[in-house]
């Protein structure tokens, strides 16, 4: 994985992820991401379930997810992958529930503003039921566990890449309010990543993580135009690298085509 024990398949994932970020699409990276996921690279497995079409199935990747679900010693990456599977399968239901929660919040706001006191308690109870339903969703619980473990690892190891993972999971949760805590964590992450980059500018995971922070919207973090350009340049350089021979050989061996991403 990218945080520790970094290997050539992890490096391939960074190349493909940067390609997605620079091009703002997933089309060119879809086949190599699928191949990389089949080879067991955990970030590619997570990404596969984010970019696959709802009707696509891949038994090689699905079997790995089954192992994650039933293993006792899950790490935060396992929980992220599991959450992405649930979101891919139940995305419509999750979106519908979120819309109901937002609708109920607006209704409650109107009641409070116009002092419809006799209905406020009833509407608050309805909102609480909907929010409880959301918190019990498998995807919500998996993301919450992943966030908890990321933050614990950051506190233990003081590795800012874990802190960035924590922030990205905050941003991933549609019901999470992006407030002061998230922005402070992101600012701290930027500060520490810049120090790590200065000490070891050739470290690929640090380059990748810093570039993601520097290219985030200014509504989340105040990056200068110079910093944003520097981040984008890093992403571009990483995206333009060749894939490893191991991944290229696997793609050739599997004879991947677009239709082959549907495996039953």
Tell the overall outline. globular
Integer average pLDDT: 86
Distance between the termini: 28 Å
Total of DSSP H or I helical runs spanning 4+ residues: 12
CA-atom Rg in angstroms: 20 Å
* Proportion of helical residues: over 70%
What is the strand tally?
A: 0
What is the string of helix and strand elements?
Answer: HHHHHHHHHHHH
Structure classification: mainly alpha
Sequence-ordered SSE layout with sheet pairings:
Elements: H1 8-23, H2 30-38, H3 42-51, H4 59-70, H5 76-113, H6 117-135, H7 138-157, H8 160-172, H9 180-199, H10 204-214, H11 225-239, H12 245-254
Helix pairs in contact: 1-11, 2-3, 2-12, 3-5, 5-6, 5-7, 7-8, 8-9, 9-10, 10-11
How would you portray this structure in words?
With 264 residues, the protein is mainly α. It is 73% helix and 0% strand. It has 12 helices and no strands. It has helices spanning 8-23, 30-38, 42-51, 59-70, 76-113, 117-135, 138-157, 160-172, 180-199, 204-214, 225-239, 245-254. Helix 3 (42-51) packs across helix 5 (76-113) and helix 5 (76-113) packs across helix 7.
What's the quick description here?
The protein has 264 residues and is an all-alpha fold. It has helices at residues 8-23, 30-38, 42-51, 59-70, 76-113, 117-135, 138-157, 160-172, 180-199, 204-214, 225-239, 245-254. Helix 5 packs antiparallel against helix 6 (117-135).
Please give a handful of descriptors for the protein shown:
73% helix, globular, 264 residues, single chain, disordered C terminus
């Amino acid at each position: 994985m990218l945080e520790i024990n970094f290997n050539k398949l992890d490096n391939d994932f960074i190349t493909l992820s940067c390609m997605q970020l620079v091009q703002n699409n997933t089309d060119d990276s879809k086949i190599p991401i699928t191949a990389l996921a089949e080879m067991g690279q955990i970030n590619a497995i997570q990404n596969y379930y984010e970019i696959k079409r709802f009707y696509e199935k891949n038994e090689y990747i699905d079997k790995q997810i089954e192992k994650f679900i039933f293993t006792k010693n899950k790490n935060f990456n396992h929980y992220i992958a599991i959450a992405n599977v649930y979101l891919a399968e139940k995305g419509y239901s999750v979106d519908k529930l979120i819309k109901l929660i937002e609708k109920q919040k607006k209704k409650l706001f109107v009641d409070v503003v116009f002092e419809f006191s006799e209905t406020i308690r009833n509407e608050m109870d309805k909102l609480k039921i909907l929010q409880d339903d959301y918190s019990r969703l498998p995807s919500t619980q998996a993301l919450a566990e992943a966030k908890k473990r990321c933050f614990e690892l950051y506190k233990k190891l003081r590795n800012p890449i874990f802190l960035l993972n924590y922030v990205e999971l905050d941003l991933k949760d549609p019901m999470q309010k992006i407030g002061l805590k998230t922005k402070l964590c992101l600012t701290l992450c930027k500060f520490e990543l810049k120090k790590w980059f200065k000490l070891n500018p050739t470290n690929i995971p640090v380059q990748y993580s810093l570039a993601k922070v520097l290219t985030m919207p200014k509504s989340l973090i105040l990056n200068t135009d110079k910093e944003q350009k520097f981040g984008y340049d890093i992403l571009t350089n990483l995206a333009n690298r060749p894939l490893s021979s191991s991944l290229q050989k696997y793609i050739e061996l599997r004879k991947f085509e677009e239709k082959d991403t549907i495996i039953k």
